Amino acid sequence: xxxxxxxxxxxxxxxxxxxxxxxxxxxxxxxxxxxxxxxxxxxxxxxxxxxxxxxxxxxxxxxxxxxxxxxxxxxxxxxxxxxxxxxxxxxxxxxxxxxxxxxxxxxxxxxxxxxxxxxxxxxxxxxxxxxxxxxxxxxxxxxxxxxxxxxxxxxxxxxxxxxxxxxxxxxxxxxxxxxxxxxxxxxxxxxxxxxxxxxxxxxxxxxxxxxxxxxxxxxxxxxxxxxxxxxxxxxxxxxxxxxxxxx
Length: 247
Prior knowledge:
This protein is α+β, with helices and mostly antiparallel strands. Helix content is 40%, strand content 13%.
């Protein structure tokens, strides 16, 4: 009977867990695989260990989309954002193939080595938005991945990218990307700007949109009015240079 149970559990595991996806202990338990049985599968070569409590099928090439979904189950608010989200939604600007993924979440997380070794990434909890922004606002899977990881819509991704200027994002590259983001939805951008708590992100959005004569520049200025007080805002960037923006 024990042998039959092992084979049944293994068959269910192989049927219900997608190839190329990591699987954790809780998922194994839900499929009838105890910790002892998982250990048996490891010794028999039916499973391989990725990290503590995380496994994959042998000879599987892990898929980025499945790994991101796996991480999204671990952290509230986990999503692909900033420059990566803009590129994925068609607003990239010469983005290198191995450009690190920009990931956000609501709690501190050290991305597992098994993930970053395969998919270089940068994770932060440093959101440009105030806590009163409705949960999930501006986060949607890509159209072709209805069950995929949440990805920032262009309006949110733009402000996330601008909030990282001078930290992990270069000034000129950010401006070049923004120049190509012409088709934003003004009402959505306005809502996000009203919840934006980063003066730098709001002012860069307004200043560059006006300089580049983008069609949504007027909407941005009105929505970011709370950040446009005072004649000038300036800050020293990580590179040592000073960024100065007029109101």
